[in-house]
Amino acid sequence: MCAYNPYENMLEVLEAAARKLGLQQNDYEAIKYPERELKVAVPVKMDDGKIKVFEGYRVQHSSSRGPCKGGIRYHPDVDMDEVKALAAWMSLKCAVVDIPYGGAKGAVKVDPAELSKDELERLTRRFTAMILPIIGPERDIPAPDVNTGPEIMGWIMDTYSIFKGYSVHGVVTGKPLEIGGSLGRTEATGRGVCIVTDEAVKYLQIDASNLRIAVQGLGNVGGIAARLFHEAGYKVVAVSGSTGGFYKESGLDVPALLQKAKHLDDYSETGAKKIGNAELLTCACDILVPCALQNQITAGNAAAVKAKLIVEGANGPTSVEADAILDKNGVTVIPDILANAGGVIVSYFEWVQNIQNLIWDEDQVNETLRNVMVRSFNQILRIVKEQKVSFRLAANMQALYRLSKAKKSRGIFP
Length: 414
Ligand code: GLU
Description:
By secondary structure, this protein is an alpha/beta fold. Helices cover 44% and strands 15% of the residues. α1 (6-21) packs parallel to α3 (80-96), α6 (185-204) crosses α7 and α12 (342-356) crosses α13. It is globular. Residues 69-71, 143, 145, 173, 315, 340, 343-344, 347 line the site of glutamic acid.
């Protein structure tokens, strides 16, 4: 078996969608390639006075439907292929939920836990300066992703603004509220995951009263989703973060556990047993919600998954081989480009507020998010039923159809 390559994974699904749609090669050839790939060397003066150079990336996959959009992640294992795949998934995601953006992604190869706060700020500001020529509110708008959040977005906004000579709120989303962030943005991805889960449960006609949910990841997506599931009355039986997790058949005390999310080693709860990340994926549950990194459900463990429904809070958590096994076993998978689109949807609302100098109240944000998610889910469900395909294929077909139409309408220059 060859090594997992996220970009090839993405292309394989895209090709399958193109075949099913009956697209001609010419209609989607350009979509197989990112428009622009930038690799930068980011020098940082460390606290001890030494200079360390980090590798950074920004990939713009498509601007056919609007400005490029997508997060920036800080992770020691990222590489160009991962960022390319993530950028393409952003183009597809924005097309699935029909917001007027293309796709992009950025990353710095770094473990932020090893940096002091000052080092992290210097790294962020220097990285921003180095990608500055290709970002901007009409061009490419970064946002949070793995290991990045509002504070880092604030530094990006400030650095960009200093170069411009005036405040530019719309250059980045997921900012702190006081500098143009949107109410509801922090919870948006997790909230969207819950909305889509409710819709899928209704469609599958499973009895919602005693459903057991397992959530992998306790960051901005998994942590929020676990809390909202708990508040909605679902039984969250398992969670795991980077340092391991817990399983409890009768349901975990999610609020208490989240308080210790950063130091799960110190957590204990009567009846809860310690489990690892791998165990969580195959634990006894009805709904599995992977909200960590890509390539978690693979050919190696897919057959052991006990959940009947998987809702992908993370980007790319299921490999193509695993997808086929899950499909054969009758597991319904709600794919990333639909399930975790809540984040970029509310990013879009944030940007809309920024460029119009408006402020929406939280109810308006959450209500509009719900409308967009439910509408998108139902559009994909229609394709699932009419074409007798999986949710993943249906979502990719919808996205590719919209992307290729936009590309065709614009034409190829010259
Ligand atoms: N990083 C998030 C994602 O993968 C959000 C992107 C955004 O808001 O632009 O969808």
